[in-house]
Amino acid sequence: MALEDAKTQVDQAFTRDDLKGPSFENAFGGATSFLRRRYTKDLTGVDIAVTGVPFDQAVTNRTGTRLGPRAIREASSLQPYDPPYGWDFDVLSEFAIADYGDLAFDYGHVSQFPAALTAHIKGILDAGAASVVLGGDHYISFPILKAYAEKYGPISLLQFDAHSDTWPDDDIDRIDHGTMFYKAVKSGIVDPKTSVQVGIRTTNPDTLGVTTIDAREVHELGPAAAVAKIKAVLGDRPCYLTFDIDALDPAFAPGTGTPVWGGLTSAQAAIMLRDLAGINIMGGDIVEVSPPFDTTGATAIAGAHVATEILCLLGHRMRTA
């Protein structure tokens, strides 16, 4: 296959006959699944399922992250021609990756949303696949982690973020994107002793024992030192990676609900994500992409690359298991 196949390939999200390999349809046309993977609700033989969660009820400031999954899928149409750069294998060719579509939920019954999402992810895990989730505000990680903890036990969390999201909130049913990791730790879903937060640059007096690598530390010591510290804390425990796009500085990702200056550069994030190869990652998400606040599409492009790096981290773990 080569770029000349764009003459005949179109709508690969529906017309491709397998779950592996690149796609050469025109980037500006066709149905925009993530990385032009095939849309399917049949997870037979699927290694990794990409799914969208268009939910943004719990934002602090600017709404719009419900449109994140759609924007990330569109931005990803520039990527599926070649193997992801910097890796020694091609995750798209070696693994069966499907776009599982979006979570269906009743926006009029917000209280029912968490259980619906946990069941959605549980269905993916029960089918033997890992999930990569396109969000959505950051609250979605809490119901997702419930499904992962049910399968793997208390899980380690690797969180890229401007905010720790461990502010106290003992109302377990309250839906808030700034307190869900407090609840995850307190309810035993996340093991704080083997969890790490990277890029933090807002005040929180109690991180509940989670190791913090703030943005300044990354800037001063560099990505390689940060990765070494992350790996030392995580060890070989099963972990879940969540990447809030506001981990990046607003100069690189302005389209988010809670931008904070002094953040990571896209180059730093790319280096760290690739150098994390070898961690025992079970799944991940990219959240808080809010397209209405970035007409350039740079934030969605960053989100699409983060999701691709998570795919590669999962593929690396699977091929070396």
UniProtKB/TrEMBL annotation:
Q: Which GO MF term does the entry hold, naming one?
A: metal ion binding
Entry keyword Manganese: yes
Task: Please state the Enzyme Commission number of this protein.
Answer: 3.5.3.11
Q: Does the keyword Manganese apply?
A: yes
Which PROSITE patterns is this protein grouped with? ARGINASE_1, ARGINASE_2
Q: Kindly state what the record says about how the cofactor is bound.
A: Binds 2 manganese ions per subunit.
- Assigned keywords, A-Z: Hydrolase, Manganese, Metal-binding
Q: Which SUPFAM superfamilies match?
A: Arginase/deacetylase (SSF52768)
User: What's the cofactor?
Assistant: Mn(2+)
Binding of Mn(2+), residues: 138, 161, 163, 165, 244, 246
Question: A GO BP term, please?
Answer: putrescine biosynthetic process from arginine, via agmatine
Pfam families reported in the protein's UniProt record: Arginase
- NCBIfam families, per this entry? agmatinase, PRK02190.1
What family is it from?
Answer: Belongs to the arginase family. Agmatinase subfamily.
PANTHER family noted in UniProt: ARGINASE/AGMATINASE (PTHR11358), GUANIDINO ACID HYDROLASE, MITOCHONDRIAL (PTHR11358:SF26)
> What name goes with this protein?
Agmatinase
